[in-house]
Specification:
- The protein is 40% helix and 17% strand.
- The protein has 354 residues and is of the alpha/beta class.
- The chain starts with 8 loop residues before the first helix and ends with a helix.
């Protein structure tokens, strides 16, 4: 199913708008090599899609190294392009030492276990993928004299909000994380990885930038993603009602995938070395119940409530309000184009068509 995404007219038009209307200098990527880890994941695959678009629809030539753990997933996702001279698949676990003969100019590290069910089941793997994985990539960047590393962190790294927050988590905030809870493997791993990035900048003069995405959604979502928003879309596409495993009052920031991809390229090409930037569409803030109702109503379905089992509870975040302040990124010139209602509708249209 996923291999047809880059044939979808609406999705291609969205990539075209990112390229033509972002105001970014894409020529900086010409004749460069770009590695994207987590290339079969939701954000990583979107980053690769845009690089493919630049190769196929502009005069630019960009060497793409798409890295993932499972070759079959990478081949299925990018099947029409795997024989292109500019496209290279790398199959490996980033928690192991990296050996690469070719030079690489830019490394985009989007490989991370962001799936709540997998976090609950494999907290050790989740933590190591974040900390050991980024260390291996930073070491590779140092050996290859890479121009820049973009680390995809998470808004979860902020921990719990307190009463001082007015407009959501800002980049300098640091809240409480419960280190006695194995679910903290994810936010704690992201924090440690960010400190490692800053340490490589300080000790080895590496150039590293960081993004902290909010809850992103869109047609690049994987079929196995257990996050609530992904399950909502799958339910209505299967002609089923949406099942909520909570009261739905948790408030979140959201961002459509092509806007998130554009944001990451903004930071890659314009961000300050060592800088961290939230990715959040301020106009797409909503609680889980409102989002579920919006998705359900689009297909004339209902939202029903059910109690989670103990294994599901282990994957739940304890944060009661996950809202990010996106002003710092907007100061670079980024402006989201696809807000929540439109994003939900076009996600469903594209997924139905593919």
């Amino acid at each position: 199913m996923r291999r047809m995404l880059l044939d979808n007219t609406e999705y291609l038009e969205q990539l075209k708008e990112v390229v033509e209307n972002s105001g970014l200098d894409w020529n900086r990527l010409d004749k460069k090599s770009v590695m994207v880890t987590g290339a079969a994941g939701m954000l990583g695959s979107g980053m690769v899609d845009l690089l493919i678009y630049l190769n196929e629809h502009t005069d630019l030539t960009i060497n793409i190294y798409a890295l993932g753990r499972t070759e079959s997933k990478l081949r299925q996702r990018f099947l029409p392009f795997i024989d292109k001279s500019y496209f290279h698949i790398i199959t490996m676990d980033i928690s192991t030492e990296m050996h690469m003969e070719e030079d690489v100019d830019y490394i985009i590290h989007a490989a991370s276990n962001a799936d709540p069910a997998m976090m609950a089941k494999y907290p050790v793997d989740t933590l190591l993928a974040n900390v050991v994985g980024i260390n291996n990539l930073l070491d590779l960047a140092k050996r290859k004299n890479a121009q820049r590393v973009l680390y995809v962190s998470s808004g979860e790294m902020y921990g719990q909000p307190d009463d001082t927050l007015k407009n959501g988590f800002y980049e300098g905030y640091c809240g409480v994380v419960d280190y006695a809870n194995p679910r903290s493997c994810y936010p704690s791993g992201k924090r440690a990885a960010e400190v490692l990035c800053q340490s490589y900048i300080s000790q080895y003069d590496l150039d590293v930038v960081i993004v902290r995405p909010c809850h992103c959604y869109g047609p690049t979502m994987t079929a196995t993603d257990s996050r609530a928003v992904s399950q909502f879309f799958r339910k209505v596409l299967n002609d089923e009602d949406i099942v909520l495993k909570s009261d739905g009052t948790l408030e979140r920031s959201h961002c459509y995938v092509t806007d998130a991809v554009m944001a990451m390229y903004y930071v890659l090409l314009k961000g300050e070395n060592g800088g961290a930037y939230n990715i959040a569409d301020q106009a797409s803030q909503a609680d889980i119940k409102t989002l579920a109702s919006l998705i359900a109503s689009t297909k004339n379905k209902k939202v029903v409530f059910d109690l989670p089992d103990e294994q599901e509870k282990k994957g739940f975040s304890k944060v009661v309000k996950a809202v990010l302040d996106g002003q710092k990124l907007e100061q670079l010139g980024w402006k989201p184009q696809v807000h929540l209602k439109e994003g939900v509708e076009c996600t469903l249209r594209i997924l139905e068509n593919i």
